[in-house]
Amino acid sequence: MSGWIATSKTRMQDFWSLLTFSSDLVDVKDSGDYPLTAPGLSWKKFQGSFCEFVGTLVCRCQYILLHDDFPMDNLISLLTGFSDSQVCAFCHTSTLAAMKLMTSLVRVALQLSLHEDINQRQYEAERNKGPGQRAPERLESLLEKHKELH
């Protein structure tokens, strides 16, 4: 996990360095040349790393932060605020981040749905076994898992 944190911190620093140069970006606004569309390997790498960061953030935090309204509300507010910006770089970067965030959230929801289906089938299969073959502990653990998933 510490490797992921270090990599994420680097990616987040790249993102924040982009946002802190707002005065430079205002001048760039009219030219249309900003980090997400800028030529060069380093900017292409930034775009890929930025998209990967958002997806990885959601994936790694799916059991913790996604169930807490405070961080998600603030992240959505931040992205919404930047998407309303007159600075194209802020607007487009936050829109891209919002799209990646939503895509990642849909993936998490799909995984949860698949886990629910598998759990339900396992529970039904165990319940349909004969009284001598049925494992009460297994039924109980599957029922607890079912409650966790809902």
Please describe what this structure looks like.
The chain is mostly helical and 150 residues long. It has one domain (2-149). It is 77% helix and 0% strand. It contains 6 helices and no strands. Helix 4 (69-83) runs antiparallel to helix 5. The chain is elongated.
What series of H and E elements makes up the topology? HHHHHH
Structural class: mainly alpha
Helix fraction, binned, reads: over 70%
Q: What is the domain total for the residues?
A: 1
Dominant shape:
elongated
Tally of contiguous helical segments: 6
Tell me the total number of β-strands.
0
pLDDT averaged over residues: 77
N-to-C CA distance: 27 Å
Largest sheet: none
| Strand residues, percent | under 5%
Walk me through the topology.
Layout: H1 2-20, H2 22-28, H3 41-60, H4 69-83, H5 88-127, H6 136-149
Keywords, separated by commas or semicolons:
77% helix, mainly alpha, 0% strand
Briefly, what is this?
It comes from Homo sapiens. This protein is 77% helix and 0% strand. It has helices at 2-20, 22-28, 41-60, 69-83, 88-127, 136-149.
